[in-house]
Amino acid sequence: MNQITTEKSDENKWAMFCHLSAFAGLVFPFGNIIGPLIIWSLKKDEYPFVDDQGKESINFQISMTIYVIISFLLAFILIGFLVSIAVGVFYIIMIVMASIKTYEGLFFRYPFSIKFIR
């Protein structure tokens, strides 16, 4: 008998964790890069979806780190404070969206992400 299950696969869950682990950056420096990097390194050979989404997450985190540094430098001319707020809100929304989409098994591409790892 075929049963329809609503359970998500382990591959989807690990892909979601690649994105959610970026919030480690709120706890310790560069945790936003290290968290996804660890999960991606451990699971990329086992799951192709995690390989793709892990690279996407790491690229976004590196890009966002660069954008935060730029907004910090712009703070000296006062526009950086507004840019920092916009970057922070964008950061949280994008991580949540990516986590939801990957949990559903959909590929997610971050906007404004520089492709460091291909």
Q: Any overview of this molecule?
A:
Helix 1 packs antiparallel against helix 2 (31-43) and helix 1 packs antiparallel against helix 4 (79-103). The chain has helices spanning 10-20, 31-43, 48-74, 79-103. The model is unreliable at 1-6 (pLDDT under 50). The chain has one domain (10-103). It has 118 residues and is an all-alpha fold. The longest helix has 27 residues, at 48-74. The radius of gyration is 16 Å and the shape is elongated. It contains four helices and no strands.
* Strand-pairing-aware structural class: mainly alpha
User: How many separate domains?
Assistant: 1
Q: In percent terms, what proportion of residues is strand?
A: under 5%
Number of strands: 0
User: Which runs of at least 5 residues are low in confidence (pLDDT < 50)?
Assistant: 1-6
Oligomer: single chain
Shape: elongated
Terminal CA distance reads: 42 Å
Total number of helices: 4
Rg of Cα set = 16 Å
How is the biggest beta sheet arranged?
none
Q: What string, H for helix and E for strand, traces the elements in order?
A: HHHH
Return the average pLDDT rounded to an integer: 90
The percent range for helix content is 55-70%
